[in-house]
Structures are given as structure tokens and as C-alpha cells.
Amino acid sequence: MKIRLLLLLLLGEAHSHAASRPNFVLLMADDLGIGDPGCYGNETLRTPNIDQLAEGGVKLTHHLAASPLCTPSRAAFMTGRYPIRSGMASQSLMGVFIFSASSGGLPTSEITFAKLLKNQGYSTALIGKWHLGTNCHNKTDFCHHPLSHGFDYFHGIPMTNLRDCKPGEGSVFTGGIRALVFIPLQIIAITLLTLAVVKCLGLVHVPPGIFVCLLCLAAMILGLLVCFLHYFRPLNCFLMRNHEITQQPISYDNLMQRLTADAAQFIQRNAETPFLLVLSYLHVHTALFSSKDFSGKSKHGAYGDAVEEMDWSVGQILNVLDELKLANNTLVYFTSDQGAHVEEVSAKGEVHGGSNGIYKGGKANNWEGGIRIPGILRWPGVIKAGLEIDEPTSNMDIFPTVVNLAGSPLPEDRIIDGRDLMPLLQGKTQLSDHEFLFHYCNFYLNAVRWRPRNSTSVWKAFFFTPKFNPEGANGCFSTHVCLCHGQFVNQHHPPLLFDISRDPRERNPVSPMTEPRFQEIVDVMQRAADRHTKTLQEVPNQLSLGNILWKPWLQMCCSSSGLSCQCDREEQARRESR
Length: 578
Known about the structure:
Elements: H1 2-20, E1 23-29, H2 48-55, E2 58-60, E3 63-64, H3 70-79, H4 113-119, E4 123-129, E5 153-157, H5 174-200, H6 208-236, E6 239-241, E7 244-248, H7 255-269, E8 275-280, H8 301-323, E9 330-336, H9 368-371, E10 375-378, E11 387-389, E12 393-394, H10 398-405, H11 422-425, E13 436-441, E14 444-450, E15 459-466, E16 489-499, H12 518-534, H13 545-548, E17 567-568, H14 569-577
Parallel strand pairs: 1-8, 1-9, 2-11, 3-12, 4-5, 4-8
Antiparallel strand pairs: 2-10, 5-6, 6-7, 7-17, 9-10, 13-14, 14-15, 15-16
Helix pairs in contact: 2-8, 5-6, 7-8
Domain Sulfatase N-terminal: 22-407
Transmembrane segments: 179-198, 210-232
Protein name: Steryl-sulfatase
């Protein structure tokens, strides 16, 4: 009898522990500006569901991306660590993966929150955008794939959404094509014309073979361009379900509806067990798209249509949680991977980037507009509704927050840079656990943020800043994104110092003349940066030139007929389900 009672007690404790562990729904927009949702001040974009989420939870107004670019920011979000620690910070001009057949990606040695939650018995899914690599050595090893990083289920794109993925939307390679194709062709044409003239004038004897070679070179360059433009879309823009390609190239027809329905079905399948759902939206990265129910309905063109469709999706997920009576046991988080892409303008002159509100800069730079992101958390009965918190927090903080709530110990063999948000969210502390935050522009330490414990100030010191162009612009329009080193930046000695609490627009740097403690403040921040850099270990660069280049042996294709790569198993599955 005593043994039975003991067993019942243990079973009761286990059941109580399982019941106390919340579900997690983590919603991440792509390139959404902090000035886009209504709850952050936008009066012309309709985001009632995101606004409702904020009303029912906590709105973070000083929430920061660990990087202003997709790939490194998502690596930091998944691991709770600065991307430089995992090798996900580029030392070259290219800061993200653009080819599906690249060999770089989130190393298998990294621990994601999904992996730890899976070990705790959670069902885990990632639906939407991954952008952290796929394969290492062959096209079926899937070493960087979501299923190798703790997710039981994946349905989405392994790469990112690009203009080149949608016919008629232009190309992100325009600058590269100009430099590598048009300029060489112009040089060849001028050379041919010059040689023809001097030959006709009898000034120099020019062998016919030189003309043939130059013409062949021009033909080869044009041929490579045609092949690139023809094959890029099917080879890089495709949907996967787990390890299988289900649609190649991707179709944007009702894409948001399809992914949202799949996310809802995942919740329904796992309503009786703890689950983690990461719904990583393709919206609002270009190429912009929306279904007929949203197209042309907003006041902000194609961009606004996409935002409002994404808001609809947020509402669908919240409705499913309500219908299944899961809302009170589910922590919902909404954010963006970085700030809006202010340089994103279509060939027709339409603005395809969002709003960063009052903040300077945008995606790919560490002015506040590039890293200040929406941060909304809701857990009814646990987190008080309607709160605003203006303390510095990071998207890296989701890792320890989720892991601790799931009952898993944090890894002890590595530095975790994120901090558990629950004490701040529940009012047990009034100060951010981050005294210092470090802002990287790819591999390079760009700025330091200091929240002194005995002051209301938030200091931000820049070691360099990007050169905006054209002069007076709010971004780097000639290069489409701001770059991080060399001729593209201005170095600052001493650092450019701002008090973000008083000057959030970063218009008026302080100086020794205006701030008596200037040198003292800069010295404290420099020492913090030095201590931080001493904690970094050398790791393989996942975004090296060798790792980001296209490798034919890594190219995934849903058919075996050469590079045609055409299939639509998504449509086939929809027909069979009717």
C-alpha cells in the first residue's frame, strides 16, 4: 500500500510538472519596422491582432535584435548567443546566405532552444523561413537543417524570400550584374571597336583570332548571365516539408494561408502535449506578396497589404489557442528579426520597405532603426496585461526565458548572452539584466550600449558608423544595404557617444564640452568591450566566401532530370485532401 501511495504521489508530481510547463508560440516577422504595428504608433496600417496581443500582455519598447541582418539575428535568437560565437558573422561584404547550395550554416555544435525543449518532451515545429543553412558535404546530410537543430517538423523555405523568387519583381543582383557583366561587356565592346579602327587605318596588324577570342568571351559572359537568371529561381526558391522539397519553384498563391493553416494544424495535433511553435513569417521581406483578400486593400501599397495579411495570420493563431482553451497556458511572443529595410524601393519607385518610426537608419546598420524591434509577450494570468517596459532587452533573451520555463537547465559548457525575461516581465525587478549590450555589424564590433545601475541614462558608443548615400539620405542606397568596413564606414576616435534615453533619434552626440563625464563613460564602455572580446573563441567562419558560394553537389532538386527542378507536391496534396 505504501509503495502504491508513493507511486501515485510521484505520478501526481510528474503530471503537475507537465501541466505547469507552458506551450510556446514564437512569431517572427521578417524586416518589419518597429513603426509598422499600430500598438507602436502607426495610425494608417491596420494591425488589430498584433495590437490585441500587446493589450493582453507586455510591450517591450527597448527591444533589440542581436544583429541588424537576417541570418546572424536568427542565429542569435535560436541560440541565445551573439552570432560571432557560432561563426554566423561575416567578415566579407555578404552577410547572409543567398544560395541554397551553400555549405555554411548554424553549426551542429550549437544548442538551440528547440533542441532543449525537445529533450524535455515538447513537440517542436518551425514553419516559414529558416535561413540558417541546409547541407554541409552532400545534398542529403541536412547538417544545418531545422530537423538537425531540435525541430520535429519543418514546413517552409530553407533560405530567404528574394525579389528574384517572384517573376517581375526585379533582382537583388542588379549591382553585381552591372559590375560582373555589363562593365566587362562594355570594355570588350570598346576594345573591339578600337582594334577595328586601328586595323582599318592600317596602324596595327590585328590577327583575326583576337576578334574571335573577344567575341567568344562576350558570348560566354552573356551565356552565363542567361543561365544564372534562368536557373536561380528554381534552384533557390522552393518549399520543403521536413527533408522533402514540396514545391519548386515556390508559388506565392495563398502562401500565407497555407503556412498559417499548417501552423494551426500543428497546434491542434499537439493540444494535449506541451509544444513549441516557431512561426517565422516570409512577410514582409521582398518580394512582397499577398492573397486577393488583402491585395490592394491597405493605404501603403504592396508593403501595407503584406503587413495586414501577416496580422490576419497572427489573429488566426490566437483564435486557435482560444478555441482549444490553450491561451492561458501558452506564452506568445511577437517580434521582427531586425528593423525595416529603408533602401527597399522597387524599379518603379514604389517604397517596399517599412517604417522604423522615430529611429534613424534601418536593416543592416546599428543605428536604432536597424535593431530596435517590436517585442510583445503574452501569457494570461502570469504576465500582467497592458504593461510597457522600456528597459533594454534582446531577442537573445528568448532562449533562456523559454528554456527555464520548460524546466530545462541552461547549457553550462558555453556562454549564454541572453537573460531570462520573466523577472522583468513579472515586475520582480525594474532594471534590465543587461548592463551592457554589444552591437555587431557582421563580424565587427560596431557599438556598445550601457545601462548604468545608478542612472536613468542609456549610453551608446559607436566605434564606426556607415556612410549613408546619397548625402542626407537615411540609408545606403547605392549598395542597397550598409556595409561594415573599409571605405563604407567612418571610424570614430573617440567613439561617437549618445544618451539614447534623452536622444532616441541619435541626432546629437554628446562631447567633452556637453558631458563632463564623457571620458569616464567612454572608458567604462571600452573596458566592457575589452572584457567581452576576451570571451570570444575562434570558430570556423560559416559565412566565408567558400561557405556562401554555390556548390553544385549540394544543390537540392525535386526531380532527377538535370536542373529543371519543377514539382508541386503542395498542390497535389491539397487535391488529395479535398
